[in-house]
Specification:
Layout (H helix, E strand, L loop, with lengths): L4 H13 L2 H8 L3 H15 L4 E4 L2 E4 L1 H29 L4 E6 L9 H10 L4 E6 L16 E6 L7 E9 L1 E6 L10 E2 L7 E4 L6 H6 L2 H4 L5 E5 L3 H9 L5 E4 H6 L5 E7 L4 E8 L6 H13 L17
Parallel strand pairs: 3-4, 3-5, 8-12, 9-10
Antiparallel strand pairs: 1-2, 5-13, 6-13, 7-11, 7-12
Helix pairs in contact: 1-2, 1-3, 1-4, 2-3, 5-10
Keywords: DNA-binding, Transcription, Transcription regulation
Protein name: LysR family transcriptional regulator
InterPro entries: LysR_HTH_N, LysR_subst-bd, WH-like_DNA-bd_sf, WH_DNA-bd_sf
Amino acid sequence: MDVDTRLLRSFAAVCEEGQLTAAAARLFVSQPTLTKQIRQLEGLLGVELFERSRRGMAPTRAGWALAARAGTLLADWEEALRATRAAAADQGSTLRVGFEGGIINLMSQRTVADFAHRMPGWQVELRQNNWFDPTSGLAAGEIDLALWHAPPSLSERYSVAVLGEEARCAALPAGHRLAARAVIDFEELLDEPFVAIPHEAGHWRDYWLAVRERGGRPVRIGAVAHNTDEWLTAVVCGQGVGFAPETMSRLAPREDVAYRPVRGLSPSQVGLYWPKDREPTPAMTAFVRSCRATIGLGGESARSTRTAPSI
């Protein structure tokens, strides 16, 4: 029987937290997604792993039996991944980098060429982030680095090499009532319908809807998009507005979309992220340096890191 290690990580988090809400926050997933994962694991094993009550989630006898072994299984798998990456680093291999739909506009052929110069024999494999996985594949070891626009608080959960800072702007259909404005106040957008990404995106959905800045005011959802193309199409068709990296307005302009600065909206921290329990490999370090040498963002802030002083 094959079981996804992601399901085991979710199971272990619920065991340790004793409730879905705290475990979901720790894993950066929505509570419905975590519930679905636990149900999926129970279905695969053919047993109930938790007793549900108002007080939370308590492992059943079968759940305790799995919990006693899950930690060792996950630790052994992580050690196997580290050993594999270390062996690959000695002979040249592929560095896998996840990216957001808009942020890839920051990179160029110069970035890849610089990396190839620093790491002969290595290649960069670029993978667009999956909006249904808040970790973009980092948790499962599917990618080595994630290139994200993110709130600074995310560095509490991940190691990050900061590349700089960038504003979030509003993306509006060209005929929108606010499209002619040079700058838009955040409060003017509160009653607008928004194009959202899926619930499964967890904290990313809230971030790109600017939930923190809303101060508890609910968001009107005009459409839900499952990838960048769907999101932009929904904006063009007037199904809602959205927030996007300012880079998109400069490097991917469109006549049917108006990108406007927003007063009162916090900027993003742009950086390369990886799990805190993984040491950066020489290839990861080289790619960070290549990005800093070729991506012009944030001036001196591109020289600093939050949790990776050695890079």
